[in-house]
Amino acid sequence: MSSLSSYLLVSALIFSIGLAGALTRRSAILVLIGIELMLNAANLNFIAFWRYGPNPQALTGVMFAIFSIGIAAAEAAVGLGIILAVYRHSKTTELDQMNSMKG
Amino acid sequence: MTATFLILAAITIAGTVAAMAMRNLIHCVLALTLGFAGLAALYLQLGAQFVGLTQILVYVGAVAILAVFVIMMTQHPTQTTESIFSSFWFSGSLIAALVFAVLGWAIHSSRLPYGIAPPHAEAAVQPIGDALMHKYVLPLEIMGLLLTAALIGAVVLAIHEKRRSA
Hints:
heterodimer, A: mainly alpha, Helix Hairpins, 76% helix, B: 166 residues, mainly alpha, Four Helix Bundle (Hemerythrin (Met), subunit A), globular
């Protein structure tokens, strides 16, 4: 088992943990954090492929990871803002108590 | 596969599992910072210094603090005894396990062409800055615009709306 595939395996494990958290937790904040974990697993893949790829001088994997971190930061800010707005409306952050779409 | 990698991977995975499984949300975010710091150390170990330090600044510094603020603004101090998992937790974890099985099978069965890392692959800060200012300057500007729009949008979403007295 090469070293690249062990990094990929760690990344797959983090992605699955984030997916399990996003699918099973009741708190909307932790669902958002699970999505962040999935994005981080993708970043680890970018960095690992850049490091073990044939042309690391091109810096493409690093660039993709940097832009992905920026997108994830924007997503976290907007997501937490939406959670605050929903909390102000329905007084809860538990997902299974948000069962009305209007009113 | 070195001992450093094994230790860092164990720290990262333990942090993420604890972040997804603990009851108290503040404890979850603390465990999450451990997982993010482990990921940053993995980036540093892979030779991507700039990405590792950016990871610490953005995730451990900003995203975790933001999540803690939202938790403090929305949680009631009363301890609930009901489950932290939703009613369809079984199918959710089954889907996650199946996704991991498929990914693991794909990684295991694919013959990766690049087994050994090139000896001196390091992303120093200066080439990254050069690339960001020349080759990737348009994506950088678009990213700045997107971040500005997203932060203004987050403030607009979270600001307290005054009720109009009609």
